[in-house]
Amino acid sequence: MYFIYSLLLAVGFLILLPRFLYDAFRHGKYVAGFRERLGTVSPVTGQPLIWIHCVSVGETQAARPLVLELKKQLPNFRIAISTTTLTGQNLAREIFKNDVEKIFYFPFDWRWTVRRTLKALRPEAVLIMETELWPGFLRECERQQIPVVVLNGRLSERSFRRYRLFRGFMSRVLRGVSLAIMQTEPDAARLRLLGIAPEKVKVSGSLKFDAGTLPLNDELTAALGARFNFNSDAPLILGASTHAPEERIVIEAVKQLIAHEVPRARLLTRAAPSRAVWRSSCTHRGVEYFLGRRSASPQATDGTAKVVLLDTIGELQSVYRWQPSFLSAAASRRRAGITYSSPLPWVRVF
Length: 350
Description:
The protein is of the alpha/beta class and 350 residues long. It has helices at residues 2-27, 34-37, 57-73, 86-95, 111-121, 135-143, 157-164, 167-173, 185-193, 218-228, 246-261, 277-284, 329-336, and strands spanning 49-54, 78-83, 102-105, 125-129, 148-153, 179-182, 201-203, 236-239, 266-270, 291-293, 307-310, 325-326, 347-349. α3 (57-73) packs parallel to α4 (86-95), α5 (111-121) packs across α6 and α11 (246-261) crosses α13 (329-336).
């Protein structure tokens, strides 16, 4: 089965290669770290090493308290961080530049690429943030007797249904996991149903909540407040970590608040640099207010912008300093006359 998996992985890579090349030349995607993805990682020697894998930005942020605690509890161990995406890599290089030994890209899941990376790092243990179950990687770690721990694990119902189609294979893959610490009991239950030994599964909640205990960047908080005039008494609504169709719901709620109840209200929302959906949502939903962007050059109108995009990485935590009071998502939707089954992840009024 592993041979079939590797073969399918290679075939898929060849089929998608023209698209990879197009994105590489047109947008610069996939070019960064290509040699590292092929297992060419500079060797690390000396003290024992712990390898932490973070897929992208969210996992990298969640790993911050983990890295600080590991440095405190295991001062004789070095730490290496890998990511899959470019945005995750950039964030890791920014927030871990003084705390870890190496930051690199996770290898393609072929036996030879994984072996090359493991040979260069020789980790004492591998910690995988959330649930990145790469069969080839887990198998090679098992063969080399390298403990693999899944941290902050989650397994959605959708992913579970997909994995369950290959339960026999997944049961074999999960033998390479020494311990899985999941966010919730349903996550843990789904993982057990895939065949992992029950005694290997624990539940501890989300590491992302621990990020709130990290020191804040007072200078950044002050700079954001001064540029966008967040220190005024105008109500400020924060929409953070939103996904479609939640952008539409937030826009509708803010429109109604401004039009009928809170005319001075403003919206600050976190959006990844590539997510132009907020700009299009504002335009298409009839919000005719100036749109301020954190990544753009400062403008004279930033202090009065009705909608501000925090389209940068790693700065969201800095906006929580303004001591928000809560505005429930349900109340926002009722005011906008919207029926929606899922609550918004974060809607706050400062």
